[in-house]
């Protein structure tokens, strides 16, 4: 059984909007998610979060706190997963599409109302992400 480890940066701005990315392979239906990705060899979850956030949004961020850990199994692909979610704030950079994997198609701030109806890549994250927006 393969184990996938990843991290995600959850960023809420001064307007109480969550930064989301529209992602998917060219042949897939595109869905929304918080910026995230897999831990590389020798990398901590914190380092992964900051790297992926920058790769997917163009923004540099700093971690405020760890806010969630999701563990489970994807039966379709026979993969166990563990994802660490960090609340982050933007401290620099310029928001732009620059994903080296070419999987990111849009970067947008979303309101609580929009988040409630967006097609999410990980539907199980919806309740948690809605709680992050006060």
TrEMBL record:
InterPro entries, sorted: Nudix_hydrolase, NUDIX_hydrolase-like_dom_sf, NUDIX_hydrolase_CS, NUDIX_hydrolase_dom
Known cofactor(s): Mg(2+)
Domain Nudix hydrolase: 3-134
The organism's place on the tree of life at top rank: Bacteria
Keyword tags: Hydrolase
Family: Belongs to the Nudix hydrolase family.
PANTHER family cross-referenced by the UniProt entry: 8-OXO-DGTP DIPHOSPHATASE-RELATED, GDP-MANNOSE MANNOSYL HYDROLASE
Protein name per its UniProtKB record: DNA mismatch repair protein MutT
């Amino acid at each position: 059984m393969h184990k996938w480890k990843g991290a995600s940066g959850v960023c809420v701005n001064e307007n109480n909007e969550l930064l989301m990315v529209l992602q998917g392979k060219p042949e897939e239906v595109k869905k929304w998610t918080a910026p995230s990705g897999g831990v590389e060899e020798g990398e901590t979850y914190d380092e992964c979060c900051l790297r992926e956030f920058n790769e997917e949004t163009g923004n540099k961020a700093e971690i405020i706190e760890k806010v969630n850990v999701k563990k489970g199994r994807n039966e379709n692909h026979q993969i166990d997963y563990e994802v660490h979610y960090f609340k982050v704030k933007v401290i620099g950079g310029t928001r732009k599409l620059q994903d080296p994997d070419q999987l990111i198609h849009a970067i947008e701030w979303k309101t609580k109302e929009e988040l409630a109806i967006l097609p999410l890549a990980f539907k199980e994250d919806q309740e948690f992400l809605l709680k992050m927006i006060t």
